[in-house]
Specification:
With 685 residues, the protein is α/β, with parallel strands linked by helices. It is built from 25 helices and 21 strands. The strands form four sheets. The chain has a seven-stranded parallel β-sheet, sandwiched between helices. Helix 6 crosses helix 7, helix 10 crosses helix 11 and helix 20 runs antiparallel to helix 21. Bound molecules: adenosine-5'-diphosphate and magnesium ion. Keywords: ATP-binding, DNA damage, DNA repair, DNA-binding, Helicase, Hydrolase, Nucleotide-binding.
């Protein structure tokens, strides 16, 4: 029976209602989605390993002959073990299956099988647990491994996809225009999908996956360009030109060249008659708040109000103080609105906003999502937003009509990648730090020197300074064992330090499991100096300024990304005292060493980001792996930025030639772009 691309999966031979409901859990309802469900990995069945040379603890493929079986052992109700004895390359191999009697029974004594799994045991007697059993006839192929779920194994998925591919009623519909395929020397989608599922060799596999990733990146880039194009059409009353002189007149220092550049770009946006959508990217401590203040000043001069949003109450309070310091002398009224502002105060602020008496309102993100009404909102400033991305921004700007937006991010990312996260924004870069900072000295030590480092920290505390100790122990990996979770270890670690090396000092604990109010309470006790040593997970990453903190000590430094380490280091060196960052790691290995050398060698966040990109690929850098970006499911970026750059160039060329994408050869592409824009708009994150 001929199968159509748009049919429900139940049209595939072997998929009934029950299986279809399992597929739904993987987000698969139609044949297209099934066929686009790509392997997450492949087992190279050409590379059979000699058991005698197998590396313990690693997953490998071995060929073994079954020589005996023990019966099933019932350990308890619902849990049984089945052991199978085998021989391979002259060695004994014991295979254990758990609750998988059928798998064990299917193995015949005297027959050879390919087994794939982790090899353990002793030198003479190897063991494998629950290996994957592969038909010997398939040696020489690449076996796809699919993302699976309970009740739906990779094997089943492979069979269903094969069934679908073999009964499709024609080639898979092409999305990319023929010209583009030729020009980029790309295979068709039909070829790519078929070969991504069943590659005959690595080269084919790479070519297939690159084709699919390219398409995705092209759609993504085109969507970004269209969002930007749509935005450029949004008109508003020009503000200014505003003279910067009065603002500069009240500053206690001269702005850096980077700050000046960013301010000029903002002022020119504001006076252009178009709605501003700008990102100010600058390393921690580069002085982005001043730039934001200048923007709010210009908007005030234009007779409009501004709102500034911070991710936490504490940061909002910090911004309030800074912004008041800059703007109150110029006659602007700056107020704070957070969850802790009491009803009476809130009413007064709401009245002031509506009456147009408040010129800048600083608050948490709840600020704008609530019922707050401005009389004439002209600018929304968002701080430290790199975790949010396009969806949230578009949700926000739809609040006010034609409101300018300014986003401030302390995560420097290489230019090509910024298009993924910020493709709809114009970017201003602040590349330097204000003069007169004492740079942070960075040390890298192994755990044998930990006690010495503790002594160093105690000396600083005795001098009246404060310190951070960051450890990645809390649940943030999401991999804790229930009951004994990693959480306990962080709590325990803080406790141990408080009773041991830091006995007599005040030790606080901050981790991701605390409620926001609890986090804020801990942070404000640290800010006030009541807590001397703050044991924390990466939640301290987001920027509260504690100038008295001069030591940042990081356990298991190898587990953090370079940019993340750099952000953490940026928490110190904010005052007039010399500061240090101590990285503790026992990781050997080339990459680990290279990475830590990179962080030690420079204080330039952009260079570190480039290095991070080189060493780990963009997925990690952007946190895509954890959070995902709608529309980027296949581009795993292991191929790196070149594919992305090519896709960006191709998208730009396409839109130059056909801005509305309404030429007949662009219909499918245009639909895909529209679908993605719809998805980006509707998903909260
Ligand atoms: P970030 O970019 O991390 O948000 P901030 O705006 O918090 O940085 O600024 C960090 C510190 O640098 C603040 O204490 C601020 O007053 C100071 N600062 C900002 N600009 C300058 C400047 N041009 N010269 C000297 N100090 C500055
Ligand atoms: Mg800041």
């Amino acid at each position: 029976m001929a199968l159509h691309w748009n049919d429900p999966v139940t049209a595939v031979r072997g998929i009934g209602e029950k299986k279809a409901s399992l597929y739904r859990r993987l987000g698969i309802t139609r044949v297209e989605e099934l066929v686009r469900h790509l392997p997450r990995d492949y087992i190279d069945l050409t590379r059979i390993c000699d058991l005698a040379e197998s590396v313990m603890g690693e997953r490998q493929l071995v060929r073994a002959e079954i020589v005996g079986k023990s019966g099933e052992q019932r350990i308890r109700k619902g849990f049984s073990i089945f052991k199978v004895e085998a021989e391979a390359d002259g060695l004994r191999l014991t295979i254990t299956f758990y609750n998988a009697r059928y798998a064990a029974e299917a193995l015949r004594i005297g027959q050879s099988y390919l087994l794939y799994g982790e090899v353990n045991g002793t030198l003479l007697h190897r063991e494998m647990e629950s290996p994957m059993v592969i038909d010997s006839a398939r040696a020489g192929e690449f076996l796809p491994i699919y993302p699976a779920c309970a009740g739906l194994s990779s094997k089943t998925i492979a069979r269903d996809i094969e069934a679908a591919l073999s009964s499709l009623d024609g080639p898979i519909p092409e999305i990319l225009p023929g010209d583009l395929l030729r020009q980029q020397a790309l295979p068709t989608l039909d070829w790519a999908l078929r070969h991504a599922h069943r590659p005959r060799n690595l080269a084919e596999c790479g070519k297939a996956r690159d084709r699919i990733a390219f398409e995705e990146l092209l759609i993504f880039s085109a969507a970004m360009l269209r969002l930007r194009g749509a935005r450029d059409l949004r008109r508003t009353e020009p503000i200014g030109p505003v003279s910067l002189a009065p603002f500069l007149g009240v500053l206690p220092f001269l702005p850096t060249a980077g700050q000046r550049g960013a301010i000029e770009e903002i002022f020119s946006d504001l006076s252009s008659g178009r709605v501003m959508n700008r990102l100010v990217q600058g390393d921690v401590g580069s002085g982005k708040t001043l730039v934001a203040a200048a923007a709010a000043y210009a908007v005030w001069k234009g007779g409009l109000q501004s709102a500034m949003m911070a991710p936490t109450e504490l940061l909002a309070e910090q911004h309030l103080r800074t912004m008041r310091g800059f703007l109150a002398p110029l006659g602007m009224r700056v107020e704070l609105l957070t969850g802790s502002v009491k009803a009476a105060g809130r009413r007064e602020i709401e009245r002031g906003l509506k009456a147009g008496e408040i010129d800048l309102l600083v608050g948490t993100h709840a600020l704008l999502t609530g019922t707050t009404r401005f009389s004439s909102l002209g600018l929304v400033i968002t701080d430290e937003q790199h975790r949010f991305g396009v969806a949230q921004r578009s949700a926000l700007s739809s609040k006010g009509r034609a409101v300018h937006t300014l986003v401030m991010s302390a995560t420097p990312i290489p230019r090509t990648l910024s298009l993924i996260l910020y493709g709809d924004l114009d970017i201003s870069l602040i590349r330097e730090l204000p003069p007169g900072r004492t740079p942070v000295s960075t040390y890298c030590i192994d755990s044998k020197k930990r006690e010495r480092a503790f002594r160093f920290v105690r000396d600083r505390l005795d001098e009246g300074r404060q310190a951070y100790l960051v450890c990645p122990l809390v649940e943030e990996t999401g991999e804790e064992t229930p009951g004994t979770g990693g959480l306990i270890s962080a709590v325990e670690y803080a406790k141990r330090l408080g009773e041991g090396a830091f006995r007599g000092y005040s030790v606080g604990l901050l981790h991701g499991r605390l409620r926001p109010a609890e986090k804020e309470a801990v942070m404000s006790r640290f800010l006030s100096g009541e807590i001397q040593l703050l044991v924390a997970t990466t939640v301290v990453e987001v920027g509260v300024d504690v100038p008295n903190a001069t030591v940042m000590m990081i356990e298991n430094a190898e587990r953090f990304g370079l940019s993340q380490l750099h952000q953490l280091r940026g928490r110190v060196g904010r005052g007039r005292y010399p500061s240090s960052c101590i990285l503790i790691t026992d990781a050997k290995g080339q990459t680990a060493a290279e990475r830590l050398r990179a962080i030690k060698g420079t204080n330039d966040g952009f260079r570190i980001a480039e290095e991070d990109l080189r060493l780990r690929g963009p997925g990690d850098l952007l946190g895509l792996r954890q959070h995902g970006v709608p529309g980027l499911e296949y581009a795993d970026f292991s191929a790196g930025a070149p594919l992305l750059e090519a896709a960006q160039r191709a998208a730009a060329a396409l839109l130059r030639e056909d801005p509305a994408l309404d030429a007949p050869q662009h219909v499918s592409l245009s639909q895909a772009v529209a679908r993605l824009i719809g998805r980006v708009g509707e998903r909260p994150n």
